[in-house]
Amino acid sequence: MAPGQGQQHLPILAIAAGVVAHHGLFRHGEWHLHGPHIIAGHLALGGATAYFLTRFDDAPADVFGRLAVLAAAYFGALFSSMTIYRLFFHRLSSFHGPKLAAVTKLWHVWHVADSRNFLFQEKIHKKYGTIVRTGPNEMTLFHPAAIDLLDGFGNETTRDVWYDIVRPRSSAVFTRDRLEHKEGRKFWAQGLSSKAMNDYYPRITGLVRDLSHCIGTFGATPVDLDQVMSWYSWDIMGEVLFGEDFNLTRSRVTHPGIKHRDRALALAGPLGDAIWIALLGFQLLPSVGRVKDWHRMLHFCEDHMLSRLKRGGNGKIDMATYFIEEYENTAKTKTKTTRDLHLSGTAVTAVVAGSDTTRAVLIAIWWFLSKFPEHAKKVQAEVDNVNTNDANALAALPHLNGVINESLRLVPPVMTGGNRITGPNGMLIDDILIPPGVKVTCPKYVLHRMESMWVQPNDFIPERWYSRPELILDKRAFAPFSAGARYCLGKNMALHSLRIAVAILLQDYDVDFAPGYDEETMWRDMRDQVTCQPGAVHCVFRPRKLTK
Ligand code: HEM
């Protein structure tokens, strides 16, 4: 047959294949874990088509040209079909929101490439209101009822695809299976129970004393709060999770694991809304740039948990005790590979949740106390006469806890994320039904600053938490630790390690911004990278015996 003869119908076939691939395949189910298969499948299809064309076209250039036309027809049809369907026929097409957001989630990823999703979400809320379509199959709810609808007791939601980020590892915190979550949560709850906490408290106090001493060694030199609070929160994580003393605060040394964690989260942050891109990178480019840091972070956590498993405990209670108990209890029901991957995923979750969250709030707290020294004075008046070993006494101090709550409100460590998928009955909000199987999200950073929920929403007013409750218009709009059956199990430990650090440091020091420090830096350079990463804060801590 002469070249080209009988091939005039091929572009039409390619267009039909594109439409069929969309409606018959990609419109259904989840594809985020199959990136490499999709690429391989298309390459195979391209190869087979090229082989077919060589039977008609002798010249390779002609074959290449024809293949390019067919690929353009196929992909053009596939993406046109997706666009038309998403804009006009999708179940969410009647909801308003940015049009390009409805077409592709890449639009969102593009806008948050600078890791400032929290500000982008705020803009969307201001422009589009409280219930907004922010993706092809995604709704964002800027509404105080949303927290309870997403996570409250009795909800039907499941976690969204983002939680597959540590695959093939798993953990109770990341599993998307409701039963597995319920079962696994029990072991976390034991590791963070009041009984375990009584064991951790004196050890945390010891680390805060180290922190105070470490700050003292800086003298009049500015303290980089990010650095010092990273040491402190990493030491706490080591002590509570592995019963291990990393000794960073005393030795003033940054553990490489901190750098790997920060760089890994910087990668995961902007890709949070298109997790398939990150997963593709993890699988195809494991040794490149920040993907390498991601794998290093995973291996650090995994290796530490394995060495804790081998060496046994130090006679101390630690969270690993309970994770290892779960590992051993499941020996008869699960394969070794499954159990190993679960233990590894649990270690990753615990390291990130246990170290990075408290660090962010502590940095923000010192910014607020330096900016508004009257609040530092009020807290000092409270803590000067309190026994810091008494956790209940610290929990009862109104201004100290007001400062912590107000910092958690204005700088929530988990600023966005916590995405869910609506259950079989959908989700009813303000008499509006969001259909089943839709991704729903509620960015806490925006909720915590909505004018309809808070009086003077952007102002730091710790009194709103005790003597001026009229400044809180709707308490449901405060959820730094999430809610319901998925609320943060580390809440008590986190609050205690914040209270005791602020109490002891304010007993020992007065704090002020470092000379020449630009106060806007923390806000200007703040990033939303799974957890909040405040911009640099530099302060000077003056011993109080010298300033009194
Ligand atoms: C100020 C510090 C902290 C804040 C603001 C915070 C906030 C949160 C939030 C918002 C969630 C829900 C996340 C989601 O649904 O994806 C969460 C879950 C969780 N957090 Fe925290 N967290 C903090 C510290 C900690 C610490 C120190 C630990 C202990 C290691 C911890 C352990 C957990 C666990 C186990 C969960 C999962 C609960 C579940 O899924 O059932 N958190 N946290």
UniProtKB/TrEMBL annotation:
Q: Which residues cross the membrane?
A: 38-56, 68-89
**Keyword annotations of the record:** Heme, Iron, Membrane, Metal-binding, Monooxygenase, Oxidoreductase, Transmembrane, Transmembrane helix
**Where is coiled-coil annotated?**
none
Query: What cofactor does this one take?
Result: heme
Assign the protein's first listed, main location to one coarse class. Answer: membrane
Q: Name one GO cellular component term.
A: membrane
Record: residues binding heme: C488
Alphabetically, the GO molecular function entries are: heme binding; iron ion binding; monooxygenase activity; oxidoreductase activity, acting on paired donors, with incorporation or reduction of molecular oxygen
Taxonomically, the superkingdom here is Eukaryota
Spell out the InterPro entries in the cross-references.
Cyt_P450, Cyt_P450_CS, Cyt_P450_E_grp-I, Cyt_P450_sf, Cytochrome_P450_monoxygenase
Q: Does the keyword Metal-binding apply?
A: yes
Cellular compartments annotated: Membrane
Note the Pfam families from the entry: p450
The UniProt record lists the keyword Oxidoreductase: yes
The family classification in the record reads:
Belongs to the cytochrome P450 family.
Protein name as annotated: Cytochrome P450
